[in-house]
Amino acid sequence: MHHLDAQQLAVMLLALGLLIGCARLLGEMAQWLHQPAVLGELLAGVFLGPTVLGKLAPEWHVYLFPREGPNAVVLEGISHLAIVLFLLVAGLEVDLSLVWKQGRSSLRVAIASTLIPFLAGLACGWLMPTALGRQGDADPLIFALFLATAMAISALPVIAKILMDMNLYRTDLGMVVVSAAILNDLVGWTVFAVILGLMNPAAGGRAAISQTIGLTLLYAALMLTLGRWLIHRTLPLLQAYTHWPGGVLGFAVTLGLLGAAFTEAIGIHAIFGAFVAGVALGASRHLQERTRMLLDEFVSFIFAPIFFAGIGLRVDFLTQFDLPLVTLVLLLACACKLSGAVLGARWGGLSVRDQWAVGFAMNARGAMELILGLLALEAGVIRQRLFVALVVMALLTSLMGGPMIRLILRQRQPHRLLDYLSPKLFRRDLQAITRREAVQELSQMAAQAADLNADAVTEAVWAREKLVATGIGHQVALPHARLAGLKEPVVVVGLSEAGIEFDAPDGQLAHVVFLILTPKHDPAIQLELSASISEMFREPHAVERVLRAKGFTEFLAAMKTMTPRDR
Amino acid sequence: MHHLDAQQLAVMLLALGLLIGCARLLGEMAQWLHQPAVLGELLAGVFLGPTVLGKLAPEWHVYLFPREGPNAVVLEGISHLAIVLFLLVAGLEVDLSLVWKQGRSSLRVAIASTLIPFLAGLACGWLMPTALGRQGDADPLIFALFLATAMAISALPVIAKILMDMNLYRTDLGMVVVSAAILNDLVGWTVFAVILGLMNPAAGGRAAISQTIGLTLLYAALMLTLGRWLIHRTLPLLQAYTHWPGGVLGFAVTLGLLGAAFTEAIGIHAIFGAFVAGVALGASRHLQERTRMLLDEFVSFIFAPIFFAGIGLRVDFLTQFDLPLVTLVLLLACACKLSGAVLGARWGGLSVRDQWAVGFAMNARGAMELILGLLALEAGVIRQRLFVALVVMALLTSLMGGPMIRLILRQRQPHRLLDYLSPKLFRRDLQAITRREAVQELSQMAAQAADLNADAVTEAVWAREKLVATGIGHQVALPHARLAGLKEPVVVVGLSEAGIEFDAPDGQLAHVVFLILTPKHDPAIQLELSASISEMFREPHAVERVLRAKGFTEFLAAMKTMTPRDR
Q1: B375 touches chain A (CB under 8 A)
Q2: N or C: which end of chain A has fewer CB within 10 A?
Q3: Where is the major localization of this protein (chains A, B) (predicted)?
């Protein structure tokens, strides 16, 4: 009845707490440096794992993360659960209808960007297995097939994130890339599932293998047709007759777990079943945004960190770091993926600039490569040093994606309101009573911070204000001006308990005043910033929440938690 | 490196999927019958456990839920994790400021309703341990102390839910009960934590025990003062500078896990640490509703079912069901808790009616008793048959709470709009073009369903409509009438793509028309129903979402998912 004694339970909770806490902390730090969170999460594992903690305080490392005993078993079980749920959520993001809509171009990009790296990987894996870090007794064909898949796969979540960050997601280019990545995902995971089936020692014999492959394809086909239809019919019933959102949430997790159990049982890895179940579930327009977000947030911020930090725990990243191998894998991966995607995009009729943008987008490997590599490591197909090389390659290809596309498309960094807010440019209690005084007071703060002439700023803003008053209603005002010589936008915020008359259409006084100064040469910025402010304050109680802030940090917290997405 | 092979992993995922799926399903079924979800969740475990599946298909039971081996270890670990997170969320619900506000009355209710059952339980446990199912070699004092706590504890979450369901939560009576239950919770868990410390075999010696107790009190005191202050300071920083809501979510879970690990390490059970951490976190007004709900929903609908179904898996509820013992425990529990609470309420100056309402509210034991019982069973203090008796007592005291209070306060069941919607009273496409036609069409449907005279209904509604038009804006209209002889309200819904002129203040046509017929003798019902409809449709896009529905189920799903809480 009792498998964990009090001390083991305490260690389990401590280890989980440290994993989640450190992974989230370093994940946030990575994001402050504009890097993906997964980089930080992985580093948390590197610090807690054999690479750092294992060197500095080996007894602590063994105490927290023993290699044997019930604690090791529980951590492995939870880590499997985490990755199954992660793939379920990844599946939800796949929008099959997009693929049909995009048609020819995306199909061609998908085919070329999957097939060319696959063949290149297959050839290299077959011709130079030892140099690439094949495990001694692993089957050469399986190793070559694994390397082929590792080269061919793209990471849909990373690509989607990069495109969203650059406001490219809803463009034609974005849709071609996303739908190609979806196809790549589906094909890649199916092929990989089959390879895992091939290496399953329990299978043995050709008959068993073909049975596994047959069952896998059957599962995917049934789930995406009949299963999808059934889910689509079931969701309204669940929403109408069960607790909301608990009913749908429980259904989604159950579906993912049972799908995962099924594919694991037929000899394919569990994650494939969860992923396909996620795709089938995400295809229903009845799945509400709220359910999607609930699952996404809990899985991304609690389970995923456990898994990705867990990767760092597995391997000593310093002793297994083999620079020539890392370089080889990185060059091979970039060369074959870029050439494949660029050729595919040319074949699909895209412009030269767009071809390269597609190339760098499809090149991002992200979390998917980590999962793939870990499974191959666990199955004894690859050596630890190849695993480390794959991890580095996955991170670097993801990191370079955004900046390279921005460079190629000559896009500027999008302007996020929150990036411009700062304590120096915030006044909790405006002295001003009139509109003119408010403009003056805020202009002086802006002038001081950005080294401008205060009177010139005031006059520019006031001139604009006299033309049309800038009270936008909902108790917010947005006085603004475009200034020659300014390089970056300046946003000053002042709060006023009493309120200031800004001649708003709804007749209300302004309690929150944003002064927005933008460079003369870029008229779009001011519109972007004003639009995002007015969207934020359209929410009921927004001004009340902002006025409750006692200082800048609380003000920023209120602004941020009002924003549906990071801005 | 490898602790779970493919088959064990498949079994783990299958077992978890079945546990969550069955528990949610039976939990929903329990709620359809107006019973608490935990009853259904527990029954799911009874079906999958030794009681049913173990009898009908023992080999399946052993396959799914083996008692030894890695699968048993993982399930135990996840189950511990689930209960830790559950107590963290339970702690969030505790609002310490309430207790100070309520002052004298609630303090007196809390003292009497905790102390009297505690002393009665202590006496009975000491005087007749064998009849009550003490485990043979358990320490008599510890057994008596355990029984005392089991009698004294109340279940804050159940009580809060009962009061909310009856719209009593925000009343004086409700606040007295809730704040007394909060005090009871704090004292009860502290005492229980100390008892668990006493029975910790590793502790041994009086010095160690007093050290454990000292550390426990120190932890609680520090966490609720310094810890609370630090958390309150940290939350705005997290909200301002980390990913929202991921940053706060990760922080909350990490805090709960580390608190749990600490108390487990000092010899007190983990759940105490998580609970106190939850109280400290929930006390900050910076904790946003969204974070609370995210945690609450994921924990209540994914983790809690695993734990509560897991309880059913532990014991054979049929062979261990001992009717005399169950009766004895139930009578003892009700007698001492009711008398304690009623005396306390009298002492606090409440009316006789309110005294008994307080009594039956405090009597609800709910999930807390299950957790307590399970820990005692695991620690070898009680026999399985006492455990079964405690489970039955916990469920029955929770089940009787709501109906008894309603009876005592002579409250009628609150009217929930969703309960009156039905396929027979729904028309997807109204034929009507004018207001008069719409009233006629809907009245005919109402008349048919409720066996009334169609013309009389039409005239009654039209008479009302002529006085003041019932278009309430936001494209919704609420024609209505009070009819003599009607026993229950009748609500008919019609949708109109084209829209019907109902003379709304915002000038928009009505696309959703609710015809509300209510009994003449109860004028409040109509106001209640109208208020909840207009609240629902104040949400942006509400009408669009409703109009997307193709039939009744999709309509009901849209209505339900628009509602912040079940209505």
Answers
A1: no
A2: N
A3: membrane
Radius of gyration of chain B (CA): 27
Q: What is the mean pLDDT of residues A399-407?
A: 87
Do the chains contact at A250 and B24, CB–CB below 8 Å?
A: yes
Number of continuous H segments (helices) and E segments (strands) in chain B = 26, 6
Calculate how close chain B gets to A492, using CA atoms only, in Å.
17
pTM strictly above 0.95: no
Average pLDDT of span A484-490 = 86
Q: What angle do CA A553, A44, A292 make, to 5 degrees?
A: 65
CB distance B228 to B219 below 8 Å: no
Fold of the CATH domain B417-562: Mannitol-specific EII; Chain A (3.40.930)
- Which chain B residues have a beta carbon less than 8 Å from that of A314? 1
Q: How do residues A370-379 score in pLDDT, each as one tens digit? A: 888 888 888 8
Torsion of CA A481, A484, A489, A493, to 10 degrees: -40
The dotted CATH code for A79-408 is 1.20.1530.20
User: In chain A, which segments carry CATH 1.20.1530.20?
Assistant: 79-408
pLDDT of B566 over the 50 cut: no
How many C-beta atoms surround the C-beta of residue A565 within 10 A?
6
Query: 192-231 in B: which are within 8 Å (CB) of A?
Result: 200, 202
Chain A residues in contact with B4 (beta carbon < 8 A): 73, 76-77, 80
One-letter amino acid identity for B31? Q
Residue to test with chain A: of B22, B65, B249, B254, most A Cβ within 10 A: B254
| CATH code of domain B82-304+322-408 | 1.20.1530.20
> If we measure between CA atoms, which residue out of B338, B333, B276, B345 comes closest to residue B90?
B276
In whole angstroms, give the CA distance from residue A354 to residue A344: 11
User: Which residue is it, tokens 């895209």?
Assistant: A350
- Nearest-by-Cβ selection for A17 from B20, B24, B261: B261
Q: Residue B251: list chain A partners with CB under 8 A.
A: 21, 24
List % helix, strand, coil for chain B (3-state, nearest 5).
70, 5, 25
What is the number of alpha carbons within 13 Å of residue B533 lying toward its C-beta? Answer: 31
CB of A302 within 8 Å of a chain B CB? The answer is yes
